[in-house]
UniProtKB/TrEMBL annotation, chain A:
Species of provenance: Iodidimonas muriae
Gene3D superfamilies linked to this entry: Metal-dependent hydrolases (3.20.20.140), Urease, subunit C, domain 1 (2.30.40.10)
Signal peptide location: 1-21
InterPro entries documented for this protein: Amidohydro-rel, Metal-dep_hydrolase_composite, Metal_Hydrolase, Metallo-dep_Hydrolase
Domain of life: Bacteria
Protein name: Amidohydrolase
All copies of domain Amidohydrolase-related, residue ranges: 282-393
Keyword Signal: yes
Pfam families: Amidohydro_1
SUPFAM superfamilies assigned to the protein according to its UniProt record, in alphabetical order: Composite domain of metallo-dependent hydrolases (SSF51338), Metallo-dependent hydrolases (SSF51556)
UniProtKB/TrEMBL annotation, chain B:
Domain of life of the native organism: Bacteria
Entry protein name: Amidohydrolase
Cofactor needs: Zn(2+)
Biological source species: Iodidimonas muriae
Signal peptide annotation: 1-25
Amino acid sequence: MKTLATSFIAGMAMLTGSALAQTVAITGGTVHSMGPAGTLENATVLIRDGKVEAVGRGLDIPSGYREIDASDKVVTPGIFAAFTQLGAVEVNAVGGTRDGSISGESPFHAAFDISYAINPLATTIPVSRIEGITRAAVTASGGDSIFAGQGALIHLGEGFDLVTTSRAFMTASLGEAGSGDAGGSRAGAVITLINALKDAQRYAKSPNPSDWDGVVSAMDAEALEQVVTGKQKLLIHAQRASDLLQIIRLKQDMPKLDLAIVGAAEGWMVADKLAAAKIPVIVQPFDNLPGDFSMLAATQQNAARLADAGVLVVIGDTGGDSHNARLVLQYAGNAVANGMAWDKALAAITLNPAKLYGVADDLGSLETGKTADLVVWDGDPLEVMSSPDAVFIAGQEMDLVSRQTELRDRYMDLGGDQPFAYRH
Amino acid sequence: MAHNKQAVFAATAAAALFLAGCASADGADPKRAIANGDAASGVVKAEPSKSGPYPSTYHALPSRPTLIRNAVVLDGAGKRIDDGAVLMQGGKVVAIGRNLDAPADAVVIDAKGKWVTPGIIDVHSHLGVYPSPGVRAHSDGNEITAPVTAEVWAEHSVWPQDPGFVRALAGGVTALQVLPGSANLIGGRGVTLKNVPSRTVQGMKFPDAPYGLKMACGENPKRVYGGKGRAPSTRMGNFAGYRASWIKAAAYKEKWDDYESKKASGKEAKAPSRDLEMDTLKGVLDGDILVHMHCYRADEMAQVIDMSKEFGYKVTAFHHAVEAYKIGDLLADNETCAAMWADWWGFKMEAYDGIRENIPFVHKAGACAIVHSDSDVGIQRLNQEAAKSLADAKKVGVDISKEVAWTWLSLNPARSLGIADQTGSLEPGKNADVVLWSGDPFSSYSKAEKVYVDGALVWDMTDPAHQPVMDFELGQPGEGDAK
């Protein structure tokens, strides 16, 4: 059984770079590279120094490479969970472990930066990692303002240094979620957003907190400057078709904004307009109930229809789940069952989130020179009955162990004379 | 199961009182028809939980004899037939096997590459009581005004226009138990429904199904009432609350039993006054109402089992049971089912020890395992929940077949609802509650193509004429769309 001590040592090894010397050849599998190599049967992936060295058929395996036989298996890039609270929440109902949002009493909201709270030893990290999740976006959520705050990008490897990009994106809410934080009207939320962005422009010209009279605090105005100049992506949560049109209009009025939409349950109704405006979406393919009046037209075919219209579709849990981020694979499989092309569904949990977050030059596909995040699956990864046989993050093979597997192993056999507490 | 045997004895107060008050109620219920009324004494031999007020008005929808053939058939009781066939006629399964002949007027479906199973039965749903849209005006699932509300009945909250019923139907769910929420120690009666569209909940009530009683362990009741500065605020407070209620119920039962026995022996007797809360708890002690208890932690389930012995009732099923894998042997010994999710965990302390192999490990220990939803989303894909569990167990050497795993979705839930004599498996004489899947239902890519309840085609993925649209959805964006 893996102990905290050994995982700490493994983490240190990664930090000091000795793991980077790993050289691995994964042979014989069906490789879905999601890159220029396309899909290759009986192919080889070479990993060296944490990077993908080569992907192809009939490659020579250099001497000294550890070989992993992936015959009858499937190899994909690591899965990128696009909208989570991994590492920011340990137990949702235990306040002291819940750092994903900031209350209304705080003097700042947009300036909230979740990267300070991320716990690399959270149990959710290995629980997700062993199901093939290698990267995640960690979002701020809720918090009595239309601005939830700034999210981070993380890897799910070992060690203390999970955050790869802090302040990678800003999350805000319009529509029903936003109206409650803006005077009780969705119009109030739009007006607040527009004026907060104007505030940011004004504050940037004259950054003087002691003499500030904006609709948002000086701290928030300062944080939003990154958004208004297009340096930081703004994710806006909204569901209703008309709310999505307001976001498209916002983009027309402020073309520098780098926007994406989270939710978009009625996105299919305005799919052509979203495609024309080049606004990507993060959708939850299970959404098919009129959970409230903003998603009356929700359908499981949303992802397929948006993708067919040319929208960049990312599949995630649009609620920002902490514990079952691993279910994005099942969501993607169900999107296929509801009309999405299989390769587009896989892209929606690998390459597309990397594109959305601006890291596709290094992540999201198996290409020479990119970071070696990859998973060897015992079958079609979008099938609910498949699971990983091997997970690599930045070229290092992960132990497929979590607190859950330790509980499993402890109670697998209910016989014996000694208390279970001695099994570890 | 044992708890049904006691029902025979039950010339009980609830029935007697009901019939005294509502003697003119219709006799459509077959169990009611055999009731042996004694007008002079008011004592009636009947099975009280199966008749009673608000009776089922359900009638099977029109059906045609239907033969599905060339399918992989899972009978729901653990058997698989490749190139199998199922014949439905008169609302019943008439035959299951290979090379069945179709009656002259039968619809014959060639199901090559497709699978046939019994309909999925969800023992834990809040459809109708927490419907979509989830607005405050529809929030009717938890009577959060006192920790013991055994007097409330979920059926009085069910909104039959909940679009969630149709989504569940598209997921192959043919019957479900709708329960009150888990805020209270004793939350009230649940009701078992057929998943067919109806203007009234009575039109959905599963005829003759016993009632369930929803109880709850752990964090929810103590948080809700402790937060209001009243009992219970601890787990020991929870138990004090349950036990006080059972003591009252035992006294109430004694009074009524005494009255019944005096009447039966021709002695003068005055009926005790009726108490709605106690009627339900007495129904449990009489074995007529089945206890379904929300309980996550292993140690708490063990305590509840002892409590049931203290007061002489049986826990039919623990729901959620996130730690059931730790006590599969205890559940097996006590013939108590565990109704579980595949992988929900971590949202509160009592869910912190969730593992993905919970369902198969309970099964492996010889206990009755059930896949449940507690969710208007999860109920649409319970087959996939079973599939995830099955695969994870297989990976650690617990190899359970798909045909056996289907018992978690139909026969075991039917047993825990007391309706296994009528549904839950494909056996001649049982209700033709059947799903034709587009492929292997343990796959992400398969969908319920046709769903039959009592032999009637109630959902057809390929034919909008057999896709119900609820009133709420008419005239709204997305009306009639593929959902």
